[in-house]
Design goal:
2 copies of one chain form a homodimer. Chain A has about 180 residues and is an all-alpha fold. Chain A has 2 domains: about 45 residues, Homeodomain-like (Arc Repressor Mutant, subunit A, Orthogonal Bundle), CATH 1.10.10; about 120 residues. Helix content of chain A is about 75%, strand content about 0%. In chain A, helix 1 crosses helix 6, helix 5 runs antiparallel to helix 7 and helix 7 packs across helix 8. Chains A and B meet through helix 6, helix 8, helix 9 and helix 10 of A and helix 6, helix 8, helix 9 and helix 10 of B. Chain A binds a DNA duplex (30 and 30 nucleotides) through helix 3.
Chain lengths: ~180, ~180
Amino acid sequence: MTEKQLQIVETALHLFAEMGFDAVSTNKIAQEAGVSEGLIFRHFQNKLGLLNAIMQIGAEKIALFSEQIEILATPEEKIQAVLELPFHIKEDEYPFWKLLNGLKWQNQYYDQTAVAPIRNIIEKAFKDMNYSNPTTETDLILAYTDGLATSILLKSTEVDKNELLKTLRKKYNWILKK
Amino acid sequence: MTEKQLQIVETALHLFAEMGFDAVSTNKIAQEAGVSEGLIFRHFQNKLGLLNAIMQIGAEKIALFSEQIEILATPEEKIQAVLELPFHIKEDEYPFWKLLNGLKWQNQYYDQTAVAPIRNIIEKAFKDMNYSNPTTETDLILAYTDGLATSILLKSTEVDKNELLKTLRKKYNWILKK
DNA sequence: TCATATAGTGAGTAATCACTCACAAAAGTA
DNA sequence: TACTTTTGTGAGTGATTACTCACTATATGA
């Protein structure tokens, strides 16, 4: 990737994350990135191609996340790690997660494959723990994870985050109770 | 509201909910609603005015929800009622909640006032129960509610829903543990 | 019944949209 | 050096955008 190519991707990611894919014009991206509009289409074919390039980079980061969780020894640890994922998202990764969450609500663009690896980890963990309904348990954990991520991404004050994690950890007993 | 006015609002709500506000043109709304495009602007001034009209109708429904919860006797019951709110959303209310959730991720349009009453109920309930950190506890409950709503709105198979609620309730005794 | 207000139409408008293309600059290769 | 490939430009394109307006149809009220 050339420097200008990277500049396009970064700028587009930030704009898409804050305003939504459809609200951002290629003209605006080019201006903010300091490149000609034509360059976007040379490198990414069309606007959707640019989005896909962004999503692929993000999906690779999620895959790395998944690998790190997969290493953990017990299923309990894996579940806890996923549930606490939202607390370990770094500020510079916020735009990608914001974009991903925003796209979820638009049938046209959302692609579930990026987050699928995480679901598989949890479902397998519950099976390994001999839960009778691992799928439903997985849904509950992922719902909570999703809600926590939403709260953190949209508010994002450091103090709240630490307090939130502390209080969450007190409740692990009931979260994992069969 | 005239019949055509209502037709515009209903059609726009469905389209906005499925495709996102920016991805839907006033032309498309008019066509699907079976009215002239000009009529949209006569009644709602502009596209944003149409969105505001939709949101106001939704906010009134949320206010009704809030009142019903407010009646409940104990703070524990109120918290449970809010947590289970996602399970009691009727199918015909899905579009509004989808729209609301989608808009959350776009700085330009989101207005938090619609859901504020619900937060107030929970925070007061935790205070009445003498929790030391009612704000954080509220954040956790609302995060879970939000995640559950997301899961239900985006998948929405009746079987999953019942199973999900059943499993959630098993864990419920522990939720109020300080 | 007639006047007035409201509801509804559809062709028209300037601005913006995603995208193209002929061309120039830069980088790579021999 | 000389040739090829890649990177980058910016004016230009037709289509679509939100929105206007002169006009007609319908309803309301005295």
